[in-house]
Amino acid sequence: TVTMTDVEGRTHALEDVEDGISLMELGRRHGVAGIMGDCGGGCACATCHVYIGEEWWEKVGGPDDVEFAMLDMVADVMRDNSRLGCQVRMSPELDGLAVTVAPASS
Ligand code: FES
């Protein structure tokens, strides 16, 4: 299960989490508000920006340099627990993950 809170504050419990799917793909499949994925997962748009639940941060891990540079483009809404959803791929050890969709950068 992935618990995804959308930009309108609604919480979705997503059950069909196959190995290797990204958080962006998962969110889009379910029409989770605020997950756009405009660039198709290429780490080039930041419309898949999510905040990782605090207790999950260590397991998920931080962004690499390319992803960090993209996050820096949305610095006004970036937080210490920001990741791009397309760059986080699910694995059994992330079962139970909780994330919140970040608001769009202004
Ligand atoms: Fe564009 Fe993730 S879908 S950066």
Labels describing this entry:
single chain; 106 residues; alpha+beta; Ubiquitin-like (UB roll); five-stranded mixed sheet; 5 strands; globular; binds FE2/S2 (inorganic) cluster; Beta-grasp_dom_sf
Protein model, in words:
Its cofactor is [2Fe-2S] cluster. Keywords: 2Fe-2S, Iron, Iron-sulfur, Metal-binding. Pfam families: Fer2. Belongs to the adrenodoxin/putidaredoxin family. This protein has 106 residues and is of the alpha+beta class. The protein has a single domain (2-101), classed as Ubiquitin-like (UB roll) (Roll), CATH 3.10.20.30. The chain contains 3 helices and 5 strands. A 5-stranded mixed β-sheet has the order 2-1-5-3-4. Strand 1 (2-5) and strand 2 (11-14) form a beta hairpin. It is globular and about 30 Å long. It starts with a strand and ends in a 5-residue tail after the last strand. The relative contact order is 0.29. The model has no long low-confidence stretch (mean pLDDT 98). FE2/S2 (inorganic) cluster (FES) binds at residues 24, 37-39, 41-48, 70, 84-86.
CATH topology term: Ubiquitin-like (UB roll)
Class derived from helix and strand content: alpha+beta
Give me the oligomer status. single chain
Bound molecules: FE2/S2 (inorganic) cluster
Give the spatial strand order of the biggest sheet.
Answer: 2-1-5-3-4
The average pLDDT value, as a whole number, equals 98
Low-confidence region ranges: none
Q: Could you estimate the helical fraction of the residues in percent?
A: 10-25%
Number of helices: 3
Give a brief rundown of this model.
The protein has helices at residues 23-29, 57-60, 65-72, and strands spanning 2-5, 11-14, 49-52, 82-84, 98-101.
